[in-house]
Design a protein that fits this description.
The chain is mostly beta strands. The protein has 2 helices and 13 strands; from the N terminus they run E-E-E-E-E-H-E-E-E-E-E-E-H-E-E. The strands form 3 sheets. Strands 2, 3, 4, 5, 6, 9, 10 and 11 form an 8-stranded mixed β-sheet that branches.
């Protein structure tokens, strides 16, 4: 199984790795969302804009847990959701879980795909070759000298 993303030129002139993901939220609504692929992020986090679009029930952040990064600590809630990825052969791949969602609209422009989801795949990020791939069996990769 192969899921292809892209390196996209963003509004600020920076090219970033992104992946289109279909998100099924707690209220039964479904949205396609562009996620920034961030292998340095421990968790997948929805932007506040996606949280508002999804609606439905949320749970408070667990006591003593925070989301932090270069910009400092950010408030968040938890959302039960299903992430669906379109594979190159047309079949869907899904990951279900309780995901974090920022409550501050200024926290980020993108939803972030973190290692909690990427750990289900082999991830290839090659800016030089303009490739972004998530792989799961039966797809595989080989590295040649």
């Amino acid at each position: 199984m192969r899921i292809a993303g892209e390196w996209r030129l963003c509004d600020d002139g920076v090219v970033r790795p992104v992946l289109l993901v279909r998100v099924d939220g707690p209220s039964g609504v479904r949205f396609d969302e562009t996620f920034l692929v961030d292998p340095g992020a421990d968790r997948t986090v929805f932007s506040e804009a996606l949280l508002v679009k999804l609606g439905g029930a949320t749970a408070p952040a667990p006591s003593g847990v925070s989301l932090g990064g270069i910009g400092g600590s950010q408030a968040f809630v938890q959302v039960q959701a299903t992430l669906s990825f379109q594979t190159t052969d047309g079949s869907p791949a899904t990951v279900q879980g309780q995901f974090a969602a920022f409550t501050d609209p200024l926290a980020t422009d993108f939803s972030i795909l973190g290692r909690d989801v990427m750990d289900h795949f082999d991830v290839i990020l090659s800016r030089r070759r303009n490739e972004l791939c998530l792989l799961a069996p039966p797809s595989r990769y080989d590295i040649h000298p």
